[in-house]
Amino acid sequence: MIEDAAALSRAAASESIGVEAAGRTSGIGPSRRLVALLGYWCLAALLISAARIWQPQAAAALENIWWGAGALLLGAALLDLLTGRRVRGLDGARQLPGNLALGVRNRVRLTLHNAGPRALVLNVCDRVPAQLSAEQLPRRAQLHPGQRVELDYPLVPHRRGQADFGGIEVLADSPWGLWQTRVLVGEPQSVKVYPNFLGISSLQALSTEQSLRFLGLHQQQRRGEGMDFRQLREYREGDSQRQVDWRASARLRKLISREYQDERDQEIVYMLDCGRRMRAKDGEQSHFDHALNALLLSAYVAIKQGDAVGLHAFAADDSGGRRSAGRLPPVKGEGGINLLLNSVYDLHSGTANADYSGAAQQLLASHPRRALVILVTNLRDEDSDELLAAVQLLSRRHLVMVASLREAAVDELLQRPVETFGDAIETAAARDFLQRRARLLQQLRARNVLVVDSAPDKLHMALVESYWQLKRSGKI
Description:
Layout: H1 5-13, E1 15-17, E2 21-22, E3 24-30, H2 32-54, H3 56-84, E4 90-97, E5 100-101, E6 106-114, E7 120-126, E8 132-134, E9 139-143, E10 148-157, E11 161-165, E12 168-173, E13 179-185, E14 189-194, H4 198-204, H5 208-214, E15 228-234, H6 246-252, E16 256-261, E17 267-273, H7 287-304, E18 308-314, E19 327-331, H8 335-344, H9 356-366, E20 372-377, H10 384-395, E21 399-405, H11 408-415, H12 421-446, E22 450-454, H13 459-473
Parallel strand pairs: 5-14, 17-18, 17-20, 20-21, 21-22
Antiparallel strand pairs: 1-4, 2-4, 3-13, 4-6, 6-10, 7-9, 7-12, 8-10, 11-14, 12-13, 15-16, 18-19
Helix pairs in contact: 1-4, 2-3, 7-8, 7-13, 9-10, 11-12
C-alpha cells in the first residue's frame, strides 16, 4: 500500500533500481550489413549476366572475381558467426519510478554493464507495456570490456492499472557486424499507473484557504458561525453577542468570544458512473479519467476538512477480476486518500449502460447513515425517468448532488459558422440536445437536488466549490 499522496509524488520523481541479471541469449540473425552485402553480390551477378551479351571475355573475368568475392563473404560470415554468436558478461537493469501518474511524462533509465572479454556494439530496446508510450527507442550504445553505460528515455502512461515490463531486449553486433545476437537482460518489473495524483500532492502542504486559492476559488469569510467549538479568543469587532463567553470574560476581565468551525465527521460518498458514456473523449483523456481526477482532488479537500469519503462505482469493467475495485466505505484521515487511490487505479469504464436505480438501491443498503451523495455521470435526456426515480430514492435518506460532464464537442459545434445545409442540421441537432439536457437538469433542481454542470477539465474546481459552499452553509 502506498503511504500517502506526497510519497506517491516523490516516488514518481525518484527511482527504484531494478535487479541486475546476466544476459540470456534468445536467438541470432543476419545484420543489415550482411543483408546489404548479399544484395550487392546478387546485383553483381545480374550485371555480369548482362555483360555476357556485349563483353563475353570481360564477363568471364568478372565472374571469377564474383565467385571469389562470394567465397570470401561466406568465409567471413561463418567466422564472424562462430566468434560472435555468444555474448558473455552483458548485464542490465531498469530503473523505474515507484508509481506513474496518468498522462504525466516520466523518464526510465536503463543501465548496461559489459563484463565480457570483447567490446560490444548494441541496439537497445525496452519491452514497454502497450498502455505506455515510449520515445527515443531503440538506442545505440558501444561498450568496451568493463564499461558501464546509462541510457534513459521518456515514458507517458495512457491507461491506468498495473503495467508489466518485460526484459530489456538488446541486439549485440558480432565483431565484424555481420550478425546480431538477441539478448535479454534485466528482470521483468511491474509498476502501477494511478490517476493524476500530482495535484493532490501539491495541495498537501497548504492550508484549506491556501488550497482554495491554489484552485482559483474564493473563500467567503464567515467568522465563528460554525457548529463545532474550536477555541476561545479575544472579542473582535463584528462578533455577535451570542459568541461572547460571559464566564470567561468575567474571569479575565475582558471580553472573550467563542470561535466555532464547520462541522466535521460528515460523510461524502461518490457514486461514480463507469458506463459506456464516460468513455467519450474531450482531448487526450476520457470523461472517466477527468471524473477520477476531479473526484480525487475534491475528496482530498473533504478529508482535510475532517470528513469521511467513500466510493460506490457502478457499471464498471470487471474483466480484471477485481469486483471489490471501486467500492470503499467512508474513511477519514490522511490514509483515506491512499485507500481511495488504490481502489480506483485499475478501475475502468465498461461498455454497458449505467443502471442508476440499481446503483441507488445498493448504496442505500450499504450506507444507512445520512451523507452527501455525489453522482458523477454524463447525463442525457433519455435517462430522465430512471435518473429521477433513483434520485428520489436517494433523497429520502441522503443529500444528493448530481455532477454532469458537459461535452465540449457540442459546445464547439455551436460556435462554428453555419455555411451549408449540413452545418444547419448539425447546429439544430446540437441545440435540441442541449435544450433537452437543460430541461433534465431543471427537473433535478426542482426536486431539491444540487446540480453541477461542468466541462470535464473544470470539474475538479466545480466539485470543490460546491462542496465548500455546502460546508459553509451548514447543509452538511
